[in-house]
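Before going further, learn to read the protein records used in this course. A complete example follows; check for yourself that the lines match position by position.
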Amino acid sequence: MLDKMAKRRWYEIGMVFCDLLNSLFIYAATLIIAIPAGAMVVVAKIMLTLMLGIGPFFIAMLMFPVTAKGLHPRLLKL
């Protein structure tokens, strides 16, 4: 879009501004979609890392009878 704008002559100044406005709308629409999508990817990666990090702790707790039997019903009562 900006290449098209750069090839215009000086007497087509109205079309230059129209092309500039068009390209700004396209850039803004792209950013409106790309920024939340990128944030979701970053948050998903952080949460996956967190879950993979604390997962072995819960598996280790299941190895002992006291925590395997007694912890789960107490959490359900809350």
In short: Helices lie at 2-6, 13-62, 65-77. The chain has a mean pLDDT of 82. Residues 2-77 form one domain.
